[in-house]
Design goal:
Blueprint: H1 40-56, H2 68-79, E1 86-90, E2 94-95, E3 103-107, E4 112-115, E5 128-133, E6 139-143, E7 147-150, E8 152-155, E9 159-161, E10 166-171, E11 176-180, E12 194-195, E13 200-205, E14 213-221, E15 230-233, E16 242-249, E17 261-265, E18 270-275, E19 281-287
Parallel strand pairs: 1-3, 2-4, 3-5, 4-6, 7-11
Antiparallel strand pairs: 5-10, 6-9, 7-8, 10-11, 12-13, 13-14, 14-19, 15-18, 16-19, 17-18
Helix pairs in contact: 1-2
């Protein structure tokens, strides 16, 4: 797209004629109706309307490029925040593609999905995509050269999208994504999953956690001889770290039998406990 640059063109936009009656072009009819004159004012109007689209999108007019108006319209639509490019399926481990921007992506297996920078994908601030995970799968999200904001800024740790969860990313800058509010403002709905029982656990969505949730676990402490170091497994392994561990002894009212407990974390899957007497107990652990 380029303004007319013929030697006969003038440097300043001429003042158009007075407004007439709006109408339509005609080829005319010999002897009865004259053909419509194509005036310079009309051609200037069409030219400037097209040029204004390029200017709004920040595109420099080029005489040798023939899709600039189309490119400008696409850019403006994307920057409006209403860009939607359809739904797709993640059927294998792969990287986020430029064609995924604006899409609803449905995970169908235990795959790794790598997310690059918004700039590398042509994503403008406000562009985004949503991932949903159905079935009994876990989709791991890895971040290549970019960070994300999820409560805290500058995060880059991998995330797991569990069964039943969804997550939406919106481009915030050329190198950063923001996790947008989803599922009625509750974050990842699947993070409310739990296993309720004597030995159990529950996940709680938490925007300050690098994985988007925290985990609470509880259970019984028992063994052949609790007066020596005894390894006690958690119902499930903590994904990253344990924040607190509490252990206390059981008590039968009126028995007088009691014991104190010492405990120490031992990795993400178990802890070590020792009691002053061989009396069973209970634990509560919190982590993420």
């Amino acid at each position: 797209m380029f303004r007319i640059d013929d030697p006969s063109a003038v440097a300043a936009l001429p003042v158009p004629e007075a407004v007439g009656n709006p109408g339509y072009f005609t080829e005319g009819s010999p002897g009865t109706l004259a053909a419509t004159l194509v005036r310079a004012s009309f051609l200037n109007m069409v030219q400037e309307e097209l040029i204004s689209i390029l200017m709004a999108a920040g595109i420099v007019p080029s005489k040798a490029t023939y899709n600039q108006v189309l490119t400008a319209i696409k850019t403006l639509v994307k920057s409006s925040g209403f860009h939607y490019s359809g739904a797709g399926t993640i059927a294998a481990s792969r990287a986020l593609a430029a064609t995924d921007i604006g899409s609803l992506l449905i995970n169908s297996g235990n795959f790794i999905f790598t997310i690059g920078t918004p700039t590398s994908l042509g994503a403008l601030p406000g562009d985004g995509f949503t991932m949903m995970n159905f079935g009994a799968n876990t989709c791991g999200l890895a971040f290549a050269g970019c960070t994300y904001v999820y409560g805290s800024a500058g995060l880059s740790a991998s995330l797991n999208v569990l069964a039943g969860e969804s997550i939406t990313f919106v481009a915030e800058s050329g190198t950063s994504w923001r996790v947008a509010t989803s599922t009625a403002g509750m974050g990842n709905l699947g993070s409310f999953t739990s296993s309720l029982g004597t030995q159990g656990w529950k996940r709680y969505p938490d925007a300050n956690s690098p994985i988007g949730y925290t985990v609470e676990q509880w259970g019984m402490v028992s063994g052949a001889n609790l007066t020596v170091d005894t390894t006690v497994p958690y119902p499930i392994s903590f994904p990253n770290s344990i924040m607190q561990l509490y252990v206390t002894g059981d008590y039968t009212p009126g028995s007088g039998a009691q014991a104190y407990y010492n405990a120490a974390t031992n990795g993400k899957s178990n802890f070590i406990v020792r009691a002053s007497a061989n009396i069973s107990g209970r634990f509560l652990a919190k982590g993420y």
